[in-house]
């Protein structure tokens, strides 16, 4: 790689001062700095993307190993469960209907008010409007102000 020391940087600065001139040098230095910053950000983004893809590959391999282990465990559990059911049926003398001998089967519990938020007796708005039922609450002061006679009108 290029070894840039303080002496080389000073030499580059002196040549740039002579070639570009003292008036344009700050603007050129700012432009070069922004371009270098953009280049560094681009290189960092590429590095991060490569790291992410490597991690993704590792995660995919790990996922495959976990899934294969889970399949193995599932198959071993199924074989042991079928063996257990056969031995249970032989010892109890019952068919594998899911019921145990000597136990009662109770129905599943259901809550009596399953839809308690549902308003079943709601009065429709058109009926309230026809029969004159108030649907909007109004404070006492607002009601007095509403029905106060207007000045200049004789009731």
UniProtKB/TrEMBL annotation:
Annotated transmembrane regions: none
Protein name: Sec-independent protein translocase protein TatB
Region spans: Disordered: 70-104, 129-155
Function: Part of the twin-arginine translocation (Tat) system that transports large folded proteins containing a characteristic twin-arginine motif in their signal peptide across membranes. Together with TatC, TatB is part of a receptor directly interacting with Tat signal peptides. TatB may form an oligomeric binding site that transiently accommodates folded Tat precursor proteins before their translocation.
Family assignment from sequence similarity: Belongs to the TatB family.
Organism (species): Polaromonas jejuensis
Keyword set, alphabetical order: Cell inner membrane, Cell membrane, Membrane, Protein transport, Translocation, Transmembrane, Transmembrane helix, Transport
Highest taxon above the source species: Bacteria
InterPro entries: TatA/B/E (IPR003369), TatB (IPR018448)
Localization: Cell membrane; Membrane
HAMAP family: TatB
Keyword DNA repair in record: no
Coiled coil: none
Main location: membrane
Its membrane topology: Single-pass membrane protein
Known partners and oligomeric status: The Tat system comprises two distinct complexes: a TatABC complex, containing multiple copies of TatA, TatB and TatC subunits, and a separate TatA complex, containing only TatA subunits. Substrates initially bind to the TatABC complex, which probably triggers association of the separate TatA complex to form the active translocon.
Pfam families attached to this UniProt entry: TatA_B_E
Listed Basic residues bias regions: 145-155
PANTHER family assigned to the protein according to its UniProt record, in alphabetical order: SEC-INDEPENDENT PROTEIN TRANSLOCASE PROTEIN TATA, CHLOROPLASTIC
């Amino acid at each position: 790689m290029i070894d840039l020391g303080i002496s080389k940087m000073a030499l580059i600065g002196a040549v740039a001062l002579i070639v570009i001139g003292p008036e344009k040098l700050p603007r050129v230095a700012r432009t070069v700095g922004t371009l270098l910053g953009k280049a560094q950000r681009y290189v960092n983004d590429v590095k991060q993307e490569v790291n992410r893809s490597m991690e993704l590959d590792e995660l995919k391999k790990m996922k495959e190993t976990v899934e294969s282990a889970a399949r193995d465990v599932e198959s071993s559990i199924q074989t042991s469960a079928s063996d257990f059911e056969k031995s249970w049926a032989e010892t109890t003398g019952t068919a594998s209907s899911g019921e145990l001998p000597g136990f009662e089967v109770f129905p599943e519990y259901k809550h009596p008010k399953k839809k308690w938020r549902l308003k079943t007796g709601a009065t429709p708005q058109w009926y309230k409007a026809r029969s004159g039922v108030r649907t909007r609450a109004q404070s006492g002061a607002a009601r007095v102000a509403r029905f106060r006679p207007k000045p200049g009108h004789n009731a």
